Each structure stands twice: as C-alpha cells, then as structure tokens.
C-alpha cells in the first residue's frame, strides 16, 4: 500500500519536486499516514483477535461475556470471537448451563422447569414460566452459627453462606443475564460439602 508520505510528494507539481518542496509535501503526507494508522488501530481495538490484551474487558462488557478465572488472554479472545455462537442460546436452558459451566466447570448445573415437574411448583399452570436451578459448589459452605444459633458472617464471607467473595452475586448475575425474558428463576439450590443452601 502506498503511503501518503510518498504519494503526496510524488503527486506534487514539478516545481515542488526539489528538496524543500518535496519535504513540505512529505510532511503533510505523514500527517495523513498518522491519521490512517490511528483509525486502523481504533478499528482493530474492537476485534477480539486483534485488540491488545487491555482491550479485552471492554469487548467482554459489550458482549456480556465477562472474563472467568480460568481464562488466558488467548482463551478469552476465542470466547469473545465466538460471542455470536454463544448468544444464539441466550434465554435457553442450554445457554444458562453453558455460561455456568464456563465459570465453574465442575458445578454440574441442573435446571428443573415447571413443565418438567409441575408438582414441584404446586401444579399451578399460572406458574408455567418458573424454573429452579441446582448447582454443586465445592468451595462454598452452608450457613454457620454463632453460639446457640444466630447466623454469622465475616467480611470475606457472604452472610449465612461461606462462599468466596462475589461468587453469589456472580451466580445471580449469570442467571439474570442468560435467563429468558419471560422466565422466572424461583430458587437456586446449591449443594456444598457442608449441606444445601437455597438462594432466592
């Protein structure tokens, strides 16, 4: 590709082809080259496979695909690159399960919808859009007690649940992001080494 630095100098009239005239045109062509390079870099910043690593979180935010702890720059690039394929399943059981497994590979999510088992939801067809999620979290724990029974918590614990900081909110955020607009998650049952926890 011809640079403006060369093109503008070569396109100048004959009387501006001497040293000073050519340098003047090359300088003006260089300004155009810098502008073109800036536009090229800015455009590529929106492409997951071409953006610098510090641009990945912005693309992830735009595509509602946050980085997970297991991601490397390369795996996160591939995830963002395949966003259209992933979001094809947005609002479906398969999409919710895939998003949960991406974040917690061993969480073994199981979704029970009203139509799978109406009796679980009270056999009331008005609850046709309700569903329940069950997951297994090996790093979470059931509620602990203080003295004779009150639940207790510390800054690094979620009140009543010994879960790593932010993971409860992260779980609920994934559900809210991938859930269908008409569907209502009425319960999240979390199996932990110290017992089951029901959230929501």
Structural domain tally = 2
- Secondary-structure element pattern, one letter each: HHHHHHEEHEE
Number of helices: 7
Distance between the amino and carboxyl termini: 60 Å
User: Radius of gyration in whole Å, from Cα?
Assistant: 28 Å
* Helical residue percent band: 25-40%
Number of strands: 4
Look at the structure and give the mean pLDDT.
Answer: 88
- Uncertain ranges: none
Which helices and strands appear, and what pairs or packs with what?
Blueprint (H helix, E strand, L loop, with lengths): L3 H8 L7 H26 L11 H7 L10 H9 L1 H5 L5 H11 L6 E4 L16 E7 L30 H12 L5 E9 L2 E5 L1
Parallel strand pairs: 2-3
Antiparallel strand pairs: 1-2, 3-4
Write a concise synopsis of the structure shown:
The protein is α+β, with helices and mostly antiparallel strands. The chain contains 7 helices and 4 strands.
Can you offer a commentary on this structure?
- By secondary structure, this protein is an alpha+beta fold.
- It has 2 domains: 4-44; 89-199.
- 39% of the residues lie in helices and 12% in strands.
- It is built from 7 helices and 4 strands.
- The protein has helices spanning 4-11, 19-44, 56-62, 73-81, 83-87, 93-103, 167-178, and strands at 110-113, 130-136, 184-192, 195-199.
- A 4-stranded mixed beta sheet has the order 1-2-3-4, with no helix packed on it.
- The chain is elongated.
- The mean pLDDT is 88.
